[in-house]
Amino acid sequence: MKSGKTKFRLISMPRVMMLLMVIMIAVGGTSCKSKKKIAAEKAAIELANQIAQAKASLKDLLRDDNPKTWQEKKDELDRIKAMQLRDPEVEDLINQVEAKLEKERQEILRKEEEAARLKAEQDAKQQKQAQLDNINSHFYAIASAPTAAEANIRIQRAISLYASKDVPVLIVVSKYGDNQKDYDRPTSIEKYLNYLKDIKKYDKQIESVKYDDFGKIIEIELIKK
Amino acid sequence: MFKYKTIIVLVFMLFGTTTIWAQDEISPDRKQAIDSLAMEKVKDLSKYITIIGSKETSFSEANRVIDRTLELFAPNSQIGVSSLYRKEIKYYTVRKYLNRLMALNYDQVSIKWYNIQYISDLEPQPDGTYVGVITIYQRFEGRKGDDLTYVDTTKKDITVYVKRKETQIGGRTIGFWDVLLGDIRVSETSK
């Protein structure tokens, strides 16, 4: 009986409770550790995937035949940089892509500047041509006037383009050597316009024109077509 | 007087040509341009004479054109005038000729020049002047009312002088060929 009692005492309730707690803690601790491990493994796999994807994207961005626009490439790079993947190869690729995008940006800027320069040149050329066309149209108008009176009216209109009626008119008769020119005897714009009225023919083209600060012609050079 | 001038010109042409070409050679293209320039001046003269002679031209316009015409000629140049009604050829200074032309006693005057061509090419002279002769045919018609009162055709020889000159324009030196017409001699007159 005594041994039975002793046995009973040994497996008394508090002890059982203690034992159960120890088992539970032991079991519970093992389970938590396992979950963390799994989570860590998952995170590691995910990170590895992200790194792999980042590398692929970065390598793609380094391709010369990448069809994306510069801004799309920049956005893609910024997205990858924001991931803050601490991988040496990724970081190296990021540096390469940054260098490439900077080079492309400089090229784009250069092209934009070139295009702007060309456009400005084209605009200036068109404006200059429009001015020449206007001057020529006055010459033709005078040469083709039906009467002397009408020609005189047209001469007055044409004269308004010039700083004065004495503006020199140079007529190139030939060019030789290093762009040296032979001229006819210089005349004034007033005399030249009257000449067109008398001869009724304008067969020259404008070689050069000089303007004053007010946009008035101060010298004009013509050459036979 | 004209005979002497022609002889002098021909002598210069014969003896001066090679010397000058050697001294100051100009390319055939430049020479061609000078030839054309001189020819153009003669054609301009043709237009001016037509304008001055026309009874439709106002007095002020005719006087303006006379001034322009005078600029084409070397000083003291003369123009010959012939007539079917007399043998001799009268010579007038350019201004007098043009004034007479403007005042011709017809209701309508038509003057046309044609067959304008060099009969003596521009050749360099010892002083650097190029001299040549251009011939033209002039058809003159004078009307009173509807009647063709007078008509003739004259062949005229025009001496042409071309000299290289320089002037200052806008602060730079411009080299130009100054073309001046000399005497106009009547060589034939026919109906």
Notes on the structure:
The complex is a heterodimer of chains A (225) and B (191). Chain A is of the alpha+beta class and 225 residues long. Helices cover 67% and strands 14% of the residues of chain A. Chain A has six helices and five strands; from the N terminus they run αααααβββαββ. Chain A has helices at 2-10, 13-62, 70-82, 88-143, 148-159, 189-199; strands at residues 168-176, 180-184, 187-188, 204-211, 217-224. In chain A, strands 1, 2, 3, 4 and 5 form a five-stranded mixed β-sheet that branches. In chain A, strand 4 and strand 5 form a beta hairpin. In chain A, helix 2 runs antiparallel to helix 3, helix 2 runs parallel beside helix 4 (88-143) and helix 4 runs antiparallel to helix 5. The longest helix of chain A has 56 residues, at 88-143. The termini of chain A are far apart. In chain A, 15% of the residues are buried. The model of chain A has no long low-confidence stretch (mean pLDDT 91). Chain B has 191 residues and is of the alpha+beta class. Helices cover 37% and strands 46% of the residues of chain B. Chain B has a four-stranded antiparallel β-sheet with strand order 3-4-5-6. The longest helix of chain B has 26 residues, at 28-53. The two termini of chain B are 27 Å apart. Classes of the chains: A alpha+beta (225), B alpha+beta (191). The interface between A and B is medium-sized, with 22 and 29 residues. Strand 2 (180-184) of chain A pairs parallel with strand 6 (172-190) of chain B, so a sheet runs across the interface.
